[in-house]
Design a protein that fits this description.
mainly beta, 3-stranded antiparallel sheet, about 25% strand
Length: about 70
């Protein structure tokens, strides 16, 4: 159990193929959604980006493989 507050929420649409993770320090990671495994409730999640000690996840976006990201 955790007492950490929820800091964000992202909608993942059924036709999404890719996930993009953006950190506060400007790191990006884009990967295919098929790489995520489904876990039962209460189990650990998936590691989607390596964070430095002073970094946090800012946003998570669901995209299609043909979508482009403008920086």
């Amino acid at each position: 159990s955790t007492i950490d507050p929820l800091t964000g929420l992202s909608v993942l649409y059924p036709n999404s193929t890719d996930i993009v993770v953006v950190t506060k320090n400007g790191k990006f990671n884009r990967f295919n959604i098929a790489m995520l495994t489904c876990n039962s409730r209460g189990r650990g999640g998936n590691k989607v980006i390596k964070l430095d000690s002073n970094d946090t996840i800012l946003n998570v976006f669901a995209l299609n493989e043909s979508d482009k990201i403008r920086l």
